[in-house]
Each structure stands twice: as structure tokens, then as C-alpha cells.
Amino acid sequence: MAEIILDQGIGWGIVLGFGAFFAILMTLLTMAQKRYLQEYQTSEMFMTAHRSVKTGLVASAVVSSWTWAATLLQSSSVAYKYGVSGPFWYAAGASIQVLLFAILAIELKRNAPNAHTFLEIINVRYGKRTHLVFLFFGLATNVIVTAMLLLGGSAVVNALTGVNIIASCFLLPFGVLIYTLFGGLKATFLTDYVHTSVIFVIILSFLFTVYGSSDMIGSPQKMYDLLVKVSEKPCDKEQFKIDYPNIAEYPSYGICAVTDNEQGSFVTMASLQGLIFGIINIVGNFGTVFVDNAYWQRAIASRPSSTVKAYLIGGLSWFSIPFTLATTMGIAGVALVGAGKLDPLTDQDVSAGLVLPLAATALLGKAGAFAIMVLIFMAVTSAASAELVAVSSIYTYDIYRAYIHSGALGRQVIRQSHISIIAFGIIMSILAIILNFIGIDLGYMYLLMGIISSPAVIPVTYTITWSKQSATAAVSAALMGVVCGITAWLVTAQSLYHEITIKSTGENYPMLAGNLTSLITSGLITTVLSLVKPANFDFEITRTKLEVLTDDEVVTNTLHDDPIERDPVRLRAAFKFAVTSSILLTIVLIFIWPLPMYFSNYVFTKPFFTFWVAISMIWAICAAVSCTIYPVFESRNSIISVFNGILKDLRGKDIIKDKKRLSQEVVPEKNNA
């Protein structure tokens, strides 16, 4: 483990200062939207952003909410462990879920346009028993994701600045709590945009530094030579003790030829362990997209005409973040070890996600460490804001309004949302501290998540897309899936390693067995039971029974009632486009692109590696334009209105009197007592 590079004051400044800055900025933006755009903070606005967000902002929000600490840290770790296959399988294995979610997103608009959460749909379709079962899976997914955010973020803050891990776990979500309380879902979209923009700027800076200006690497050709040098080095434990007397334990990764890679090379897709990780990644991330209410909320908040485009743009843009960053910084860690510029990392450091910060520090010193601190802060807080609102909406609509006070409206809904946001933030901080102390780190949680969440994937998918699935089939599949998945996971660990410990259960093969069993068992059970005894659900029930809350607002002439936006023919066409495009992209990313290189045992030549790096560079630039420039262009009229309003206020004119409220009128709230 490298020595601490930054002063604690810098760590405190980023965690507290940036948190306070974004809390103030987003609060001011919320006030500006209310004054100049008449976006009043009603219960519907707080939870759904009035279902009117445009394509670019939704795409940017999807990228931001899917850019966890793990996206940056774990992707670099698997690059360090497996070479170029690690970044690809991380990116491809976790982007196809977002692409395929476009199908569910448009089906949501067609079959349940007034829903606030995906669990509301389950409740209406199947009833309370099934609702409670999937309530567990939904909340469990949010807990796992938030735990990973705080585990990864606190580990980096502690490693680079020495700030206490307990303090980091509590303070990282603090600013997020404040602006989420004030602005609700729309505020998270705005911060998502800012965070995504900063993330792309830093990633592109690393990219051009490593492959352009760095004295240690400086070009794809030099990177290739350094990686080949490491892969040709024999794995000699005795020699390692002589070369590195300060490192007690012989590390498994990044110092010599890669086990199970073709020719031991870091520059090949023919990596068995990389492929196994890819399968785990694919299975695990279906659960953390399809069963995470944060992604359903982004679909709920988007315009019907924007939904499919937003998820396709978001999925393809997100691909570039782990692919480009890890193809730059993850394998740079290997190259730097080979060049003697960085000590080999221990297995514990690699699992904790410290490849990225340590490589950045070796390359750029304090500037690199500072950039990583900002990068991780942006990833943790943007994704955490999405999780906070997701859990808040589940508590409000699927616990409070479903089981405690069914008639709650208006301010009561917002008040309960505020309470749940604060409570969840505190609970997750405590849980992250507990996990840290018992030795559960980011890498372990990342591999585990699919075992817990993926049994709900197929039943949830069928809920919105297939009228034949019965309540019995859905519940049986989810419960049997998680039981069989956990059993397969633990039995495999015991069989292969003769013990059940954190180390043995965290290995690739037990995790692979558990993840695959959870998803496949659940899918088979619900499909077979639904075919044997099919239901015949009428989706007109979910279209009409789920209603927009209108207790504190009169919704007139709004986008929600726009007949063009809700035209069944247009929505059907969008559904067909979503199915065709997302499935085609999935086939390309998972089969057509990587598998021929795997089965042919192809090892990259220097020109091909240069081409590979160029692809990552071009993809990242295109993604940055899509997520930073396009949303501004799309919202230019609103931005101009806000600036004009500010100028009028500065000149002493009252913008509220000058501008008619065309979109909505706010009337006194009904008595909710």
C-alpha cells in the first residue's frame, strides 16, 4: 500500500466543500426553476419531474446514476488483473442492461404511464403478497448499490488523504441529502449533468496524458511495449521477495504473465478469467438495473418521445467510461509496475479498488491524486442521489401510501419523502462502516450483487411486458432463485476451497455459480409456471388504476396530457425500435465483437493495440458530446428564459407579473389532515 499522498485538509475540503457547494448550487437552481420556469415543488414534481424531461438530460442522468465508484475503481482493477479484456467485459457486460432497459422504459409509458415506482405496478397487478416480496428485492438492490458507493468512495478518500473511513462514510452523502431534500428528482437530474460533465473532462484528461504527454508512457506503442515486458516476466516468488522486501504477501496480479490468458499476455481478449468476470458482470448488473427503482424513475420522468432514445444514448455513452478509463489507467498500473515506477499492489488493494488512485498518483503525483478524489466524489454523490430518491419513492408510495396512510397527498407525501431520504442516508452510512470493519470491500459486493438481485429480473420484466405471468409464478421464481443462488455460491466455495470464508466465497468460480443459478433458476420457474397455468392480465388496469396525484396542483395543458406524446401508434413504433436496436446492440457487444477474438486466441499486435486505444478515445469524445453539449442545446430555451428572468430581476422588473403561467396553475392544497 502506497503512502498517503494528499494532506487530510484536502480530503476534508473535497468531501465537505464540494458537498456544500453542490447543496447550495442545486438549491439555488431549484429556486430559479420555480421563479422563472414556474416549476413548483409539488409531490408529482418532487418524485417524477412531471414526466417531462428531455432526451439529453435523461441520457446524462442515466450515465451518472450508472457511474458508481465501482465503475471507475473495479473496471481499473479488472484491467490490472486480466489486461485489455477486463475493461471491455466491464463496459459491455454492464451497458447492455441499460440498452435493453429501453424496452421496459417504453412499455412503462404504454402500460403504466402514471406509475411512480415499478413496485406500484406489481401491487396493482398481483396484490399485496407479491408486492411485499418484490419490495424486499427492490430495497435490497438499493442497499447493495449504496453500500458499494460508500465502500469504494471511503476507501479512496482514506487511501489518498488519510481521512477516517467512518467520517467518510457519513460525510460523503451529506451534501447529497441536502440538495435532494430541496429539489427532489429534478435536482438529481441537474446534478447528474454537472457530475457527468466533470467525469468526462477528467477521463479525457487522463487519456491524453497517458497516451500523449506522460514521460513514463506517452504513447500506445510505449504502453504496448511495457505490457509485453510484464507478460514475459516469469512468476518467481523467491525473486519477488528479493525485489520487494517491503511487500509481505506475494500478489496475484500485475507483476508477471496472466494466468489463463493466451501467452500470459495483457493485450488479448483470450482471457478465461476475464470471460468469467464478464459473465458474472452481465448477470449481476441485470439485477442492479431492472430491479433498481432509480432507472425506473428516469423512465418515469422522461417524455414518452424521449424515453427510448435517452436509454440508448445513455447506454452507449456509459460504455465509454469504464472502457476508456480502464484501458487507460488500469493497464497503466501494470505498465508502471513493469517499469519500476509503482510497487506491485497487494490483492487486498486491488479488491478495494485502489489500482486507479495509485496509478494516477504514480503518473501525476498530487495532481493525479486530487483528480481521482474529485472523480470518485462525483461518481459517489451523483449515484447516491439517484439511490436516495429511488428509496424515498419506494417508501412513500409502496410503504407509506400502500400500508400506512393510503390517502396521503401533497405535503404529506413530500414530508414522508424527506424523512425517508434522511433515514436511508444515515442507515447506509452505518452499514458501510460495519461492512468495512468485517472485511467486506467493493470488489466482494460487486460480485455478490447479482446473487441477491437477479432472481427478480425476469419476473419484473414479465410484469410490464407479458400478460401471462401469474402472481404465483413471480413469487415462486424470485424466492427459489435467491435460495438456489445462495446455495450454489456457498456449495461451490466449500467444494473448491474446502472452507466458507470471505476469501473463498469472493473467488470468481463460486460467484459465477451463484449469479448464474440465481438468474437462470428464476427465469425458468416463472416461465414454466406461467405457461402451465397462465394468467390473462389486462394492462388497461395499470393504465387507469395508477393515477397522477393532483391534490395540490391543477394539471392543464401539460405535456402529460399531450395527445401526440401519448399516441398509441407512436408508442408502438417506439417499442419496436427499442426491441430491434437494443437487441442488435447487445448481440454486437456480447457476441460479434469479443467472442471471435477469444476463440481465435488472438494476441494484439502493436498496430492493433494502437487501433484499440483509438476506438476508446473516439468513443469517449462522442459520449462526452452527447452527455454534456446535447442536453444544453436541447434545453436552450429554458436556459435563456432563466437568464432573461435574472436580468429582469436585476433591472427591478417582476418576472412573475410579466410572464403568464401557461403550463400550470397552482391552487391551495387540500386539507391532508
From TrEMBL:
Keywords, alphabetical: Membrane, Transmembrane, Transmembrane helix, Transport
Localization of this protein: Membrane
Pfam families: SSF
Keyword Transport: yes
Annotated membrane topology: Multi-pass membrane protein
Superkingdom classification of source: Eukaryota
One cellular component term from this protein's GO annotations in UniProt: plasma membrane
InterPro entries: DUR (IPR031155), Na/Glc_symporter_sf (IPR038377), Na/solute_symporter (IPR001734)
A Gene Ontology molecular function term of the record: spermidine transmembrane transporter activity
Gene3D superfamilies: Sodium/glucose cotransporter
Transmembrane intervals: 12-32, 53-73, 88-106, 132-157, 163-182, 194-214, 270-291, 311-338, 358-380, 419-438, 444-464, 471-491, 511-532, 573-596, 608-633
Primary subcellular site in the record, as a coarse category: membrane
Family in the record: Belongs to the sodium:solute symporter (SSF) (TC 2.A.21) family.
NCBIfam families hit by this protein: sss
Protein name: 16105_t:CDS:1
Organism: Funneliformis caledonium
Lineage of origin: Eukaryota, Fungi, Fungi incertae sedis, Mucoromycota, Glomeromycotina
